[in-house]
């Protein structure tokens, strides 16, 4: 918490004004739409008041905050909370056209928070390994479900969509800040994994309802189109399937993930 702000609450007139698209901060926000730039600079942006507020309440602070005059007028109480409880020193009041310039949203929200991408580490609890999850909505939903059922360790291989893609963040909400998320770009993590490896399958494997996992394990979820890769399937200690009606071929991966997390938690 920014203690000096508790004694001297920040007012809107204290925000720095930005009116030009040539401003370095606006250029930064526009560039952060690129996965390559996010990875190079280890930063990402969030354009959602609820996510920003929930993240701050759980101790995940932003580096800078950008709001339009209209947003500031409509959300005075929320903005006061953000400004008075953040340790950030950079608060900006921006022209609405600038918000439209860099925003990923069809209708810009009027608020943007800048964050640093954390250097996460896995703990000793089970690991969820994601292989080829390339739909942002599915990935975000999987992350949110993992948090809901107590699975904090998430590993993404290089074929997954970027964790900090704005659609992923939108679907994951504040779960993006509360999980231990790392990337396995070279496949080295999986190669060196010593945990029992369980791969999910739509057709073959042990019935989930009858399966008893080890206390610590690595559960692999595969992509929307092809499932878990054959290479990982071949290495798995067990393949697991969810019994479903013959009227349907398979479940959406995010739906299957929620079922698996619930059963594995039990």
What structural keywords apply?
single chain; 266 residues; alpha/beta; 60s Ribosomal Protein L30, Chain: A; Alpha/beta knot; 2 domains; 7-stranded parallel sheet; 5-stranded mixed sheet; elongated; disordered N terminus
Write structural notes for this entry:
The chain has 266 residues and is an alpha/beta fold. It has two domains: 3-116, Ribosomal protein L30/S12 (60s Ribosomal Protein L30, Chain: A); 127-265, Alpha/beta knot (3-Layer(aba) Sandwich). 38% of the residues lie in helices and 20% in strands. The chain has 13 helices and twelve strands. The protein has helices at residues 3-7, 24-31, 35-41, 49-57, 69-74, 76-85, 96-102, 136-148, 166-172, 175-178, 188-192, 230-235, 253-265; strands at 16-18, 43-46, 64-67, 90-94, 111-116, 127-131, 153-157, 180-184, 197-201, 206-207, 218-222, 238-241. The strands form two sheets. It has a seven-stranded parallel beta sheet with strand order 8-7-6-11-9-12-10. It has a five-stranded mixed beta sheet with strand order 1-4-3-5-2. α8 runs parallel beside α13 (253-265). It is elongated. Residues 1-7 have low confidence and may be disordered.
SSE layout:
Layout: H1 3-7, E1 16-18, H2 24-31, H3 35-41, E2 43-46, H4 49-57, E3 64-67, H5 69-74, H6 76-85, E4 90-94, H7 96-102, E5 111-116, E6 127-131, H8 136-148, E7 153-157, H9 166-172, H10 175-178, E8 180-184, H11 188-192, E9 197-201, E10 206-207, E11 218-222, H12 230-235, E12 238-241, H13 253-265
Parallel strand pairs: 1-4, 3-4, 6-7, 6-11, 7-8, 9-11, 9-12, 10-12
Antiparallel strand pairs: 2-5, 3-5
Helix pairs in contact: 4-6, 8-9, 8-13
């Amino acid at each position: 918490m920014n203690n000096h702000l508790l004694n001297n609450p920040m007012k809107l007139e204290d925000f720095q004004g930005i009116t030009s698209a040539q401003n370095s901060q606006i250029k930064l926000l526009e560039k952060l739409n690129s996965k390559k730039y996010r990875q190079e600079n280890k930063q990402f942006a969030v354009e959602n008041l609820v996510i920003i507020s929930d993240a701050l309440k759980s101790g995940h602070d932003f580096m800078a905050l950008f709001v339009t005059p209209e947003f500031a007028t409509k959300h005075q109480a929320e903005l006061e909370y953000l400004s008075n409880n953040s340790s950030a020193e950079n608060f900006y009041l921006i022209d609405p056209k600038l918000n439209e310039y860099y925003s990923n949203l069809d209708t810009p929200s009027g608020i943007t928070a800048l964050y640093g991408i954390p250097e996460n580490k896995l703990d000793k609890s089970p690991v969820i390994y994601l292989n080829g999850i390339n739909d942002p909505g599915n990935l975000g939903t999987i992350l949110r479900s993992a948090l809901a059922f107590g699975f904090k360790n998430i590993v993404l291989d290089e074929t997954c969509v970027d964790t900090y893609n704005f659609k992923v963040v939108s679907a994951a909400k504040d779960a993006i800040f509360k999980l231990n998320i790392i990337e396995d770009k070279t496949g080295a993590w999986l190669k060196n994994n010593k945990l029992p490896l369980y791969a999910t399958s739509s057709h073959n494997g042990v019935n989930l309802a009858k399966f008893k996992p080890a206390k610590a394990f690595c559960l692999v979820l595969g992509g929307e189109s092809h499932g878990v890769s054959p290479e990982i399937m071949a290495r798995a200690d067990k393949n697991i399937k969810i019994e479903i009606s013959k009227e349907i071929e398979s479940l959406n991966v995010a739906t299957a993930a929620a079922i698996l997390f619930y059963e594995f938690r039990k």
